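Sat 14:20. Reprocessing the chain from the morning session after the first attempt stalled halfway. Input below, unchanged.
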Amino acid sequence: MDVDYKVVIIGAGVVGLAIARALAIKGETSVLIVEKEMGIGQGISSRNSEVIHSGIYYPTDSLKAKYCLAGRDRLYAFCRENDVWNSKCGKLVVAQSGQEALLETLYEQAQSNGITEIHMMDRAEIQTLEPEVSAESAMFVGCTGIISAHELMSAFHRTSADADHDLLLKAVIVGAEPKGDIYSLRVEGPGEASYSVTTPWVVNAAGLHSDKTAQFLWGTNDKSHPMLRYLKGSYFKLSGKWRHRIERLVYPIPDVSHDSLGIHLSFDQNGEMKLGPSAEWIDDRSEDYTVNETEVDFFYREAKIYLPALERNDLSPDYAGIRPKLAETVNGHSDFYMKHEPDYPGWVNLIGIDSPGLTAALAIGEDVAGWIST
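Finished this time. Tokens:
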């Protein structure tokens, strides 16, 4: 049976674009990417800390650990080869008095995951490396870095576009129906347009809407399938006097209750500093990206612990993002859901791809492309 495309990718975030890139490299030209926003990477992929993660936090046998480690070194190499801005600046995970045992546990997890560029530091060593940072002890992680997410996604898209892939913006998939070996996808947009697209392969990389997109196949009543919870995180930027004052990222001990890394300090390629993200469960799944200015006191208190020179008026609201967390966790950790669904051949679900999805994108893209183009 004739089809419109060999592959339809739902979502033009970093993961969807990484899959398109990998398919292009494999010679696949019949690819459509459907994106609900006005451009690529305007959803959760552009509303994060832009950190290249090391892989220290995740359970050893988790998909997050596997793909973070597989993606990290690929990402640094890709940036070198494609002129994508990045900095392998390293980071400090800091522990205050009474938190030393928690830091030691994290160090052991990092060792279990095979992270090599790590070592423990005492207060004096911290002060020598980063005089502005105060902590009883710290773990230095040398393989952590930062990246321009927009430059990365643009580079992925260039490879996709060079392979003559089609990109459909301001359009959403509103339904899917299996018809033998193919899927008929109902599309709405741009504008008032409504039509169907047929394909034997569907890649659901729809981010915040990935669980709802999967329900086109398995319905809404089966609670055995993955569901998402939204975790909103806001950022506050620091005043210009903090520019370039700290050379490494600074993270507190993780916030286990929210499966979050806590209020950490990061910066961009201009040396502009920011704090965040916070962690607020959004149970009504509203996509509200406003930053509540009243959170400034919380951010100030949390960061003042490890930045004693910080003043409250150094902080101002910046931006917010929403993390798609799997509702089902194991020992407080959510994982990725990545599967070529056995009951629906040709349908690939990528659900709950939150942090470290940016770091893992290249590795995820290569594996998914391998499932399709064998």
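Residues 63-82 form the longest helix (20 residues).
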